[in-house]
Amino acid sequence: MKMRSMVATAMLATVAVVVGCSSSSSDGGNASAPTCKGATGSTGAGSSACNSCTQSSCGSQISALEGACSAFVNCYEGCDCSNINCIAGCQSQIDSTCMNAYNPFTSCLVQSCASQCTGSTGPDGG
Description:
Elements: H1 3-17, H2 48-68, H3 70-77, H4 84-89, H5 96-112, H6 114-117
Helix pairs in contact: 1-5, 2-5
């Protein structure tokens, strides 16, 4: 199986999910991606560039993710953005219902916001 590839893709999506400035849709229905704690940097997880991109390009996917993946989102929001182990641990919260929303979000993220949502978030785990 391609578990490493799947985990790497999941990590990219997870890192991007943290990008939002707020934890849920709090500004009149404009979907904000969930966020981890302590986001810093001009690009990468938690950055305004990633947040802006995911809101404009992946808004419907974010809404679906928030609706289907509350356990994952809650776990993720409890993690420090620099704590890759915590973020990776949240993957266990993705069940089959959540996966139906998570996969389209991942695809949108990779296709539309990869450069804005990846960056230095810690050491490269390879």
